[in-house]
Specification:
Length: 119
Amino acid sequence: MVKGLGTLPYESRLLTFDLFPLSYKQLRGDLILTYGIMNNLDRCFVPDDLFTQANTPTLRGHPLKLRSGKVKIDGRKFFSSRVVAAWNALSEEVDLSTCANSFMSRLDMHQIPSRHTAV
C-alpha cells in the first residue's frame, strides 16, 4: 500500500497507478490462454477438447468464433463457458493477431474504455 492512498476508493487507485482491475486480469489471462490454444502455442490443451469453432458464415465479426464444447471435466467446462463469450466479442483485429505479444497489446487497447472500472 502506498502511504496516503489507503483512503481512496479502488477505482481511484486504479486510475492513479494506471492499472487494470483484478477481474479484468483474470479475463485477460483466460483470453491469452485461449489465443495460445487456438494457435497451437499451448501444447497442454487441444482446441477440440475445450471448444468447437463456429463455422457458420452468417456470424458477424472475426472468423474464429467459438462455441463451448461438450466437456466431461468440470474445470475445463468452466473455463470454456467463461471464455467463449469474451472471445467472440473481440474485434477481428485483436483475434487475428499474428503473435502473442501483438494479441496482448491489441487486447489491452480494445479494453481501454472499461479499463478502470471494477466489475
